[in-house]
Amino acid sequence: MKNMEIKYGSTCMSVAVEEENLIGVIEANKLSEEKTEEEVIKDALENPIGSARLKELVHDGERVCVVIPDVTRAWQKTDKYLNAIVEELNAGGIEDKNIVFISALGSHRKQTREEHEKLLGEKLSERFKVIDHDCYDKENLVYLGETTYGNRVYINRIAMECDHIVITGGIVYHLLAGYAGGKKTILPGISGAETIMKNHSLSLNDNLGESVKAGVCSGGTEDNPVHLDMLEAASFVKPTFMFNVIMGPEGQIAAAVAGNYIAAHEQGMKILKNIDGVDIEEKADLVIASAGGYPKDINLYQSVKTLTNAREAVKEGGYIIAALECREGLGGDKNIQDLILNYDNILDREKFVRDDFTISKFIAYCMCETAYKFKVILVSDIKQELVKNANITVVKTVEKALEIVHKEKGENLKTYVMPHAANTLPMLTK
Questions:
Q1: Which residues form the Lactate racemase C-terminal domain (predicted)?
Q2: What is the pLDDT of residue 32?
Q3: Domains of the chain: which residue ranges?
Q4: What's the pLDDT score for residue 106?
Q5: What is the rounded (10 degree) CA torsion for 418, 420, 421, 423?
Q6: pLDDT of residue 430
């Protein structure tokens, strides 16, 4: 018997799997070279990809907009790398008064002053203020043109009035865009609501019942219209410089890329694959997954990536046991709750998503589609009645979940364990 611990909220749970059934533990890969976070940031800024150094690209008297993530992505340790970026701008002759920070909220809520301070860190908060992008404020948007996907691109006016736009953020797998970071800081980051929703709606096939396009998935770029439309939108903006971090399995800044927003992001995607992309030779009958604990499993909405990543390692019709505390219940907005609570079949849910498409609807749909194609059992504090219409079973322990699986499917099941499934993406090699 193989005994392991997986994170659950702020605590841990034990998992026991017969060794002859355990195919493997899907964990992030370790980097061969270990550097301090400060060294990683410094090396990236001093060795940009496809670009001169930032301090050489800007000039005295010019105005620079630095686009930063919102507080939901504070795990990227923005307070560490923004200091280095400001130092680089100052070295290029840019005075503080000519540096503008805009938080790329996309369609997220406005932030508090305390959240702004968390993003900038103590030192920068004394020197700068943060402007929250508002995708619904049409007076503060400027129209730039239309992509080949028919998407009318509206971008934050303050950003476009600056001489330079520097985009920052982190690269992780993303179920819509393939990868976060890079172009995603522009769209949805500082785009108008119309532009955001049109882009995200490209994820669905043309006909009802055909669900999500095959290329729209974590790690998907080549045949992913959401990703490609984002790239086109960013081409109207032409960011001067990009800085993105890649996080390690322990939450540290493991790597960073800087320079041209396309070339540097492509290099960052390769680094991410080397860390969080894990090759598997076969799919399992059962995957036991954890998001990696709080705050990644704070609610079901935030936990969707755990389910969509875990499904990549299990056969269709197989079982996913997901240890997700969900101390705040379903999470998300009214659309999410409507889709999960008030529908009992996947076709009606798809109709609901297509009618006035929103990202929150889509994410909730992805969760329900996973529970439609696989048998999902949550080890969770969430109430059973909240997810019963989504065909999800809730229990209190991993042992109880395994009891259900063994009763329905038998005990000799090929099994993977995914301790950090919110970040780790299994990739079938055959």
A1: 282-420
A2: 65
A3: 2-28+278-428, 37-247
A4: 81
A5: -140
A6: 67
Pick the CATH number of 37-247 from 3.30.930.20, 3.40.50.11440, 1.20.58.340, 1.10.150.120: 3.40.50.11440
Q: pLDDT (tens digit, 9 = 90+) per residue, 151-162?
A: 999 999 999 999
Q: Answer yes or no: CATH 3.90.226.30 is held by domain 2-28+278-428.
A: yes
Does 37-247 match 2-28+278-428 at the fold level?
Answer: no
H/E/C letters for each residue in the chain? CEEEEEEECCEEEEEEECCCCEEEECCCCCCCCCCCHHHHHHHHHHCCECCCCHHHHCCCCCCEEEEECCHHHHHHCHHHHHHHHHHHHHHCCCCHHHEEEEECCCCCCCCCHHHHHHHHHHHHHCCCCEEECCCCCHHHEEEEEECCCCCEEEEEHHHHCCCEEEEEEECCEECCCEECCHHHHCCCCCECHHHHHHHHHCCECCCCCCCECCCCCCCCCCCCHHHHHHHHHHHHHCCCEEEEEEECCCCCEEEEEEECCCHHHHHHHHHHHHHHEEEECCCEEEEEEECCCCCCCCCCCCCHHHHHHHHHHEEEEEEEEEECCCCCCCCCCHHHHHHHHCCCCHHHHHHHHHCCCCHHHHHHHHHHHHHHHCEEEEECCCCHHHHHHHCEEEECCHHHHHHHHHHHHCCCCCEEEECCCCCCEEEECC
Per-residue model confidence (pLDDT) at position 74: 72
What residues in the chain have per-residue pLDDT under 70? 31-33, 430
- pLDDT at site 148: 98
pLDDT computed for residue 405 by the predictor: 96
pLDDT, tens digit (0-9, with 9 covering 90-100), for 329-365? 998 788 888 999 999 899 999 999 998 888 788 889 9
pTM assigned to the model: 0.87
What's the confidence (pLDDT) of residue 371? 94
